[in-house]
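Fig. S4 source data, part A: sequence.
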Amino acid sequence: MLVGAVMDQQELLLAVVFTVFVAVLYVFVLYRAPEILLGSTSYTKGVDLWSVGCILGELLSGKPIFPGTSTMNQLDRIMEVTGRPNSEDVEAIRSPFAATMLESLPMSRPRPLSEMFPSASVEALDLLRLCLQFNPNKRVSAKEALRHPYVVQFHNPEDEFDCDRTIRIPIDDNTKLTVQDYRDRLYNEVLKKKKEQRRSHRRNLEMQQSQQVVSQQTYQASAGQAVAPQHQPAAGHQVAASPQQPGRM
């Protein structure tokens, strides 16, 4: 009985994990850009703006706008909105499979966004159109999107920073490692960052303390000059009076 109960719990746990995995995978597919579906290996930040467009469309309609059942079905649903891409758009995908995959899909008339989202404002539809461009080079950038009339009221340049360097992943994604190796490398990376933060914190404290000492010394020096005692004559010493000017004759 006990063994059976343990096995049932293990099977239940595996079922839950598998269900969550499938659900996450399906949700991720809903927001994939065309270049990822077509096998591009050199995609850009445009994939994120495509996902923004998918999320915006879902907020406007209350349901996923590209609920594909497979990669090809997903592409078919996308082209029902964007229309069939031209040669320039296909070239921008940077995938050797793009042309062949797209040629195998049936022709379809693109649906206007205003028909898909009849209650959406003109500004919302315009931002949606700019995000859901099949060609990644024609999509709106993050900076441009933040200044779009639909969301400009939330735009605050002081809180929106640009990364001035290329972020490189410390673990090469092309090299497949074991779970334990990934765990160890990730743990070591966290420890490394923690040490760097502590060193940086100590340097900042030392710099602040040094600046405080210099400021205090400067203040004391200036205050000493301001209240320097005046020279007083010695006791018993009389200051000679200035001679009186004779009056006029």
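Fig. S4 source data, part B ends here. The CA atoms of residues 130 and 136 lie 10 Å apart.
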